[in-house]
Design brief:
seven-stranded mixed sheet, binds S-adenosylmethionine, MeTrfase_reg_dom_prd, transferase, methyltransferase activity, Methyltransferase domain-containing protein
Length: 450
């Protein structure tokens, strides 16, 4: 049998990126918030893992679990393997394989994540990706599937068309950027109609060329409708459970009030989510799928919630000044909820069951659940990890700081106390590498341990 021809570019490397939604603790906390048991802390797998940056951070932060990354690009896999070896991460492996022909990958996997793949490949690979998940997901497992969605993502097909049309230029990325910038300057109708296009262009101007090539110069760039993606998975026996982006599970904070009223009484999941996508002009979705299982009853749900331990993240804003910047505008955080919550977490990590006894939350676990999910989404609080002193985390961080000092792009460091990674801006990365930076961050990254 001949190997499938890649329908994705392989001649340029995708830069390292970290996605906190892929962390086992994040996925577990979101599932539990939605009323489903957390998956086992067994085997995690990323489909289309690029250079395996997220996989490396998460493997170092969760040494009690196993991690696997799969990607068709041999250079990506070579970089990923070299980093894992240098950091001595023996719970992490990478496979160079096309998802249409994933030989030698047995599974089952308790968590399967994929980011930046589904909207950038043709229907054959999309189907193969869904089939892989349906075949390899453990019975209690979860799949987190990110893609560019209709209708908000559709706007960027216009950018894709411009970059693709520049493919013959000596430097297509620079050419495409210059053409788009000129159009914006000229107040082109596209930029007038799509307020976020200018912001996206500004962001692109700060990105390495490899990022832009992968995002906009593949043959396919297809924002997908929720119904199409949900159908791919439901045809294979998997059930949509919600979003890995907590904000998208909270209508009160993510849907304009009037639009929310038009959703009242809509029970059909596909129609409801499609209407929500229109209400939010949703550009990106991060859908969670599991095998069919009845959601936990109220008592069981409470028991699941009460088991999660939450920690405040360094740099959390004072509760009085807290405003959530959401895609539908600023949402003021109610200080009657967030002041006691953040004050309690500032004293140290706390179990949901303990925070629940504080007056505004007593007898109102739903309110606390929502407040914690907003805090998770906003990067203020996070579930506690299982291995605060993971030695692999400190080794990996020292390696990454050395790479950053050499000018490499290092978007995040491994935060073992959270079982995750944490984004670090370049200036702070330099301070940390030079032995400085805030003490709370040095502790989070295990930088002063022998
Ligand atoms: C945009 S990059 C995203 C990388 C990583 N998931 C991230 O978010 O940083 C997409 C990755 O998917 C990989 N990919 C595309 N099609 C694939 C296929 N059919 N099988 C395996 N990997 C694939 C590409 O090589 C690339 O590394």
């Amino acid at each position: 049998m001949t190997a499938p021809q890649p329908d994705y570019l392989t001649d340029h490397d995708y830069p390292p990126v970290f996605h906190p939604e892929q962390a086992p603790g994040w996925l577990a906390a979101v599932l539990v918030a939605l009323g489903h048991p957390a998956p086992a802390r067994g085997h995690w797998c990323e489909l289309g893992c690029g250079e395996g940056f997220s996989a490396a951070l998460l493997a170092a932060a969760n040494p009690d679990m196993r991690f696997t990354g799969i990607d068709l690009n041999p250079r990506h896999i070579a970089t990923a393997r070299a980093r894992a070896k240098a950091a001595g991460l023996d719970n992490l492996e990478f496979h160079c394989a096309d998802l249409r022909d994933p030989q030698g990958l047995a599974g089952p996997f308790d968590m399967i994540v994929t980011h930046g793949v589904l909207s950038w490949v043709g229907p054959e690979v999309r189907t193969a990706l869904a089939a892989f998940i349906a075949t390899h997901l453990a019975p209690g497992g979860v799949a987190a599937v990110q893609y560019m969605s209709e209708p908000g993502g559709a706007a960027f097909r216009a950018f894709h068309a411009v970059f693709r049309a520049c493919a013959g230029a000596p430097d297509p990325v620079a050419e495409g950027l210059a053409r788009l910038a000129a159009l914006r300057e000229a107040k082109a109708g596209f930029f007038q109609m799509h307020a976020h296009a200018a912001q996206t262009l500004d962001n692109l101007l700060t990105q390495p060329p490899g990022y832009i090539r992968h995002e906009y110069m593949n043959a396919t760039f297809q924002p997908l409708a929720f119904g199409e993606v949900a159908g791919l998975f439901s045809d294979r026996g998997l059930v949509w459970r919600g979003s890995a982006t907590p904000l998208d599970n909270i209508d009160a904070a993510s849907i304009p009030e009037q639009a929310a009223r038009s959703l009242a009484g809509v029970r059909d999941t596909v129609l409801r989510e499609t209407m929500k996508d229109l209400a939010r002009n949703q550009a990106l979705r991060y859908d969670l799928f599991t095998r069919p299982k009845a959601p936990a009853g109220d008592e069981a749900h409470l028991a699941l919630l009460r088991g999660v331990v939450w920690a405040l993240l360094p740099g959390a804003p004072p509760p009085a000044a807290l405003t959530f910047t959401t895609p539908i505008g600023p949402v003021e955080a109610d200080p009657r909820l967030y002041a006691p919550l953040l004050t309690r977490l500032a004293q140290g990590p706390a179990r949901f069951g303990d925070i629940e006894t504080i007056p505004p939350f007593a007898g109102r676990p739903g309110l606390l659940n929502q407040a914690l999910q907003m805090a998770l989404w906003a990067g203020i609080a996070h579930p506690l990890g299982r291995a605060p002193r993971a030695p692999g985390a400190a080794r990996l961080n020292r390696l990454l700081l050395a790479e950053a000092a050499q000018g490499a792009r290092v978007p995040a460091l491994c935060a073992a106390p959270l079982g995750s990674g944490r984004a670090v801006p370049p200036a702070q990365m330099a301070d940390l590498g030079a032995g400085g930076g805030p003490q709370a961050l040095r502790a989070l990254f295990g930088l002063d341990r022998g």
